[in-house]
């Protein structure tokens, strides 16, 4: 039986993949220009997305492992983390519906705290003349400041263990994969469907209501 938490992570990635296309679409499309052979271009695109998945999984393992250490020592910390994850789920829903730019501030923090240092490693994977570099390129861009990814990480911190945090973020990455692969392989019907206004409203509302449900649970647990 599929873990509902992992299924939620996949859906969260799928719902927000239109944002992923906006953030990383140019990078994914550039793989087509970097490789002349169409078969190699497919391989490079797959490896790029595998690199993203590995970086997301590593980040999930780190935040979940660290938070689990603190949460095990204090019920209060565990309750605070539950409130944070519910709050960010609501923000993601509003962002997916494009009602509010609720995650831009997170990306600004990420640029200062992480990306300005990570982007310097770009010189080690350019030019993209090998499959190993394509994998490294994806792993590097997996650390691109992204409010959607950061929101998923706030949920990963409540999973309880580093392994579960890694699995959660891996499922999130798989949710973003259809749109990213479609873009990289120049079959963009999936990305058009995900950016459809009705689809965004349905997915966004689901995330908002799920966030409210999580918030209700967090409040109830804090009162007991």
TrEMBL record:
Q: Which organism is it from?
A: Pseudoalteromonas tunicata D2
> InterPro entries under this entry?
UreH-like_TM_dom (IPR039447)
| Boundaries of every Urease accessory protein UreH-like transmembrane domain copy | 9-213
- Which controlled-vocabulary keywords does the entry list? Membrane, Transmembrane, Transmembrane helix
Q: What is this protein called?
A: Urease accessory protein UreH-like transmembrane domain-containing protein
Task: Give the matching Pfam families.
Answer: DsbD_2
Tell me where the transmembrane regions lie. 50-68, 75-97, 134-153, 165-186, 198-219
The source's superkingdom equals: Bacteria
